[in-house]
Design brief:
By secondary structure, the protein is an alpha+beta fold. It contains eight helices and ten strands. The protein is elongated and about 60 Å long. InterPro entries: Bact_HTH_transcr_reg (IPR050679), Chorismate_lyase_/UTRA_dom_sf (IPR028978), TreR (IPR012770), Tscrpt_reg_HTH_GntR (IPR000524), UTRA (IPR011663), WH-like_DNA-bd_sf (IPR036388), WH_DNA-bd_sf (IPR036390).
Length: 234
């Protein structure tokens, strides 16, 4: 691993473990240079990456101020299971299985004109550090996975699909909007209707192009963050 990435992960761990809390200043560049025995530019690359991801605000003449890191960062340009995301971010998270229903038509709001599909509906609430942040509605294509076990629904659907069923997940198409909270959002996420919801509607395809599942993921907007790396091509 490159040195600046190692420093980035060390500082990120310090922020997420509350060694550095919101409103604190990170050690100065010179202090970090002495701690890690690297160049100032290496330190600046690590700090700049944290700033780009919303963990820090760099203030000229003052230093790097720690911002509110009580959010989840979701990558949209890749496909990752929630369990993988939890592991990567070192989160204290619990899956609350709300309901499982069989032979459920996929809502037209997820199909975007695609043919109707009968699914197994799995509803899960994601609780992070004791606070409900996300509700996921997964509509699993019954022609591909006819009966997902309750244990798999509680643990990881992707792990079950790939490791147990041997399916090869290839790509997903995602639609992202911000919408008013609905009644169920208020109940499941313990919020009032003034809190907006980031809604991610996606369809996940296998390597043979079959639809594996449709998902509607509903996130508390005040606890939501998404960061992607983008390059301008000329």
């Amino acid at each position: 691993m490159k040195k600046y990435l190692q420093i980035y992960h060390d500082l990120l761990n310090d922020i997420q473990s509350n060694k550095y809390q919101q409103g604190d200043l990170l050690p100065s560049d010179q202090q970090l240079v002495m701690r890690y025995h690297v160049s100032r530019e290496t330190i600046r690359k690590a700090v700049r990456l944290l700033a780009n991801e919303g963990y820090l605000q760099t203030i000229r003449g003052k230093g790097s101020l720690v911002l509110n890191a009580d959010r989840l960062n979701f990558p949209w340009a890749s496909i990752e299971s929630y369990r993988e995301l939890v592991k990567q971010n070192g989160l204290d998270s619990v899956n609350d299985l709300v309901q499982v229903n069989y032979h459920v038509p996929v809502p037209s709001s997820l199909l975007y004109g695609a043919p109707e599909l009968t699914s197994q509906l799995i509803v899960r609430r994601r609780i992070v550090a004791g606070e409900p942040l996300i509700v996921d509605y997964d509509y699993v294509n019954e022609q591909v996975a006819a009966d997902v076990p309750i244990t798999a629904a509680r643990d990881s659907l992707f792990h079950y699909f790939e490791e147990t069923l041997g399916l090869k997940i290839d790509y997903a198409i995602k639609h992202i909007t911000v919408e008013p909270a609905k009644y169920d959002d208020c109940v499941y996420l313990e919020i009032d209707q003034s809190t907006p919801i980031v809604v991610v509607r996606s369809e996940t395809h296998l390597s043979d192009n079959r639809i594996l599942s449709y998902t509607e993921s509903r996130h508390r907007a005040d606890k939501f963050s998404s960061v992607e790396f983008a390059r301008r091509h000329k």
